[in-house]
Automatic annotation (TrEMBL):
Superkingdom of the organism of origin: Bacteria
Name used for this protein in its record: DNA-binding response regulator
PROSITE patterns found in the cross-reference section: OMPR_PHOB, RESPONSE_REGULATORY
DNA-binding region coordinates: 132-231
Organism this protein belongs to: Paenibacillus montaniterrae
Pfam families: Response_reg, Trans_reg_C
Compartments it resides in: Cytoplasm
Record's keyword annotation contains Phosphoprotein: yes
UniProt-listed InterPro entries: CheY-like_superfamily, OmpR/PhoB-type_DNA-bd, Sig_transdc_resp-reg_receiver, WalR-like, WH-like_DNA-bd_sf
One GO CC term on file: cytosol
Domain (OmpR/PhoB-type) ranges: 132-231
Gene: vanR_2
Molecular function as annotated in GO: phosphorelay response regulator activity; transcription cis-regulatory region binding
List of residues that carry 4-aspartylphosphate: D54
Length: 231
C-alpha cells in the first residue's frame, strides 16, 4: 500500500526539518522544497497527497505556487506563514488553500490539521466515486466527478472551496445554510467566532458567476440567517 507523501515547501531549514520529523513519526513520507520553484517541480514529479506551503519563499511565493498547483491538482494545501493578519489569512484561503496556520506554531497542532485535511480529502474522493449527481439549474452545470462548473456553456474557474460551497448549496435548493453550517461541512472543522471566511468565499463565488448583474441570483442571502441556492 502506497504511503502518504506530504510536500514541505519552506525556505527555513530548521522549520522544514522539524515538520518532517513530526510527519515521519505519524507514518508519512515527505519531500522538502526550499523554494517555490522546487515545490512546483516536486508536485510535477511525485504523487503529493498534501502540501504545506510557506508564503514568503524565494523564486515563487506561496500564493503563486498555490495558483499554479490548483490549475491541475486538488490535494489539500495548508499555508504556514509568519503573515498573521486576518487579511493575509483570508487571502490565502481565497487563493485556494484549505487551511492557514501562523508562525510560531505548535507542531502537534499542525499534524492534527494535516490529518483532518487528509481525512476530508479521502471522504470527498470516496463520495465522488460513489457517484454524486450532476446538477443543472438556470444555465448552470455542476459536474462533481470532474469538479467543473459552466454557466451557459462558459467554463467557470473555481477554487476547491468555492466549488464545494456551490455544490453544497445547489444540492439542497431553497434550503438555508448558516455560515457556521457551511464552514463545518466544507472545511470539516469547528467554526470559529468572528470568521468571515465563508462570506468572502461567497462574495468571490458570486463575482465569478456574474451575480452582480443578474436579476435572478442563484445564491440568495437570507439576512440574519445565511445563504440558499435559488436554482
Amino acid at each position: 500500500m502506497r504511503r502518504i507523501t506530504v510536500l514541505i515547501a519552506e525556505d527555513e531549514k530548521e522549520i522544514a526539518e522539524l515538520i518532517a520529523l513530526h510527519l515521519q513519526k505519524e507514518g508519512y513520507d515527505y519531500i522538502i522544497a526550499g523554494d517555490g520553484k522546487a515545490a512546483l517541480q516536486a508536485v510535477q514529479m511525485h504523487q503529493i497527497d498534501l502540501a504545506i506551503l510557506d508564503i514568503m519563499m524565494p523564486e515563487l511565493n506561496g500564493y503563486d505556487v498555490t495558483r499554479l498547483i490548483r490549475e491541475k491538482h486538488n490535494m489539500p494545501i495548508i499555508f504556514l506563514s509568519a503573515k498573521t493578519s486576518d487579511l493575509d489569512k483570508i487571502s490565502g484561503l481565497v487563493m485556494g488553500a484549505d487551511d492557514y496556520m501562523t508562525k510560531p506554531f505548535n507542531p502537534m497542532e499542525l499534524i492534527a490539521r494535516v490529518n483532518a485535511q487528509l481525512r476530508r480529502y479521502k471522504h470527498l474522493n470516496h463520495s465522488a466515486k460513489e457517484g454524486k449527481k450532476v446538477i443543472e439549474a438556470g444555465g448552470l452545470l455542476i459536474d462533481p466527478d470532474q469538479r467543473t462548473v459552466s454557466l451557459y456553456g462558459q467554463t467557470i474557474e473555481l477554487t476547491p472551496k468555492e466549488f464545494d460551497i456551490l455544490y453544497l448549496l445547489a444540492s439542497y435548493p431553497k434550503k438555508v445554510f448558516s455560515a457556521e453550517n457551511i464552514f463545518q461541512q466544507v472545511w470539516g472543522e469547528a467554526y470559529y467566532d468572528g470568521s468571515n471566511t465563508v462570506m468572502v468565499h461567497i462574495r468571490t463565488l458570486r463575482k465569478k458567476l456574474g451575480e452582480e448583474k443578474a436579476k435572478n441570483k442563484l445564491i440568495k442571502t437570507v439576512w440574519g440567517v445565511g445563504y440558499s441556492f435559488n436554482g
